[in-house]
Amino acid sequence: MKRTIIAMSVACGLASSPVMADHLKESLSGMLKKKEETPSLVNLNGIDLDGKAKPLKPKSRSSKAVVATVNGEKIRKKEADTYLSKRTNGKIKDFDLLPKKQRLSLIKELALPKIIAKKAQKAFSSEEKDALIARAWMQNAMAKAKVPEAQIKAAYERIKAQAKAKSALAQLPPLEKIKERIKMQIAEQQLIGQLMRGVEVKVDSTSKDIAGYAGMIPIYVEDVNKALARMTKGKMTWATLSPKDRLGVLNMIAPSKLITLSAKNALTKEQKDAVLANVWMQKKLSEIDVSEKELKARYAKLKTILKKSKSKKKLPEFSKIEPSLKMEIAREKLVKSLTKDAKITLK
User: Fold this and answer.
1) Which residues of the chain are in CATH 1.10.8.1040 domains?
2) I need a labelling partner for 118 at 20 to 30 A (CA). Which of 98, 152, 167, 186 fits?
3) CA-atom Rg of the chain in angstroms
4) Higher pLDDT residue, 10 or 151?
């Protein structure tokens, strides 16, 4: 589960998106000249890794050496070497062999997830962080759940019967259209059932601050009042509830407390940072303006590149790839802004 969450975040463009590192990719692509099948030569500004070494070969430092600082945070050569190797599919493994321009570009790309993570940490409140991390963990757990086809069909038949009773059968979509949604709902119910198994929910009438407990987890009056404010639009509070209603409300809140605790225990700090950074980045991307002129220019550039490559592939119509182009340009703008503001120094 942990690996899946990391993969999910990276896929969303946090760490190694080709778009986010476009200028570095272009630089490295010139250094990694490939033949049709297998690469045989890697040129690094005069350094032929497969041929005879040039007399002036850059000196390689110790893996523990500090190769750069980002906002005062040290980046050691081992980390840079590892990232470079991944970035070039193992073709270049020594950071010190790169020209200065490429080293700076690589450090900017390597530092980007850390920069975004710090921005996200400051942007969200403690409560928001818990909610986002819990939601990510829950979604990942539900996506991995195995729900039998028969169970999905049985659930659909129950929904169908309810729709028929309300004379709303015509409005019910076919099973195939809502199949995944039904699966997620069943998976959610199953997961909550597992978390709640053996957990006693009880009211605490002796405390002013604690409303009750879900097992050993305290549920605070403040949390209950916030939930009631959302559910009843401010009409009810913990103080106005009857003893029976109090227990009912605690039973409604208890699953979220157990999910939050499970997420905190299951995920590493790196994974939690990745979740928050991803949400923060998506929010920022949605706020960036991309003009029609920029989109058309990018599309024209792609057409030129495709034409020069003499590829038989056809570029999709502008309207079909406009959303992806917009996201691409927005990412580039965000990355440029973040790395521009960061204090990055090569050593």
Assistant:
1) 14-123
2) 98
3) 27
4) 151
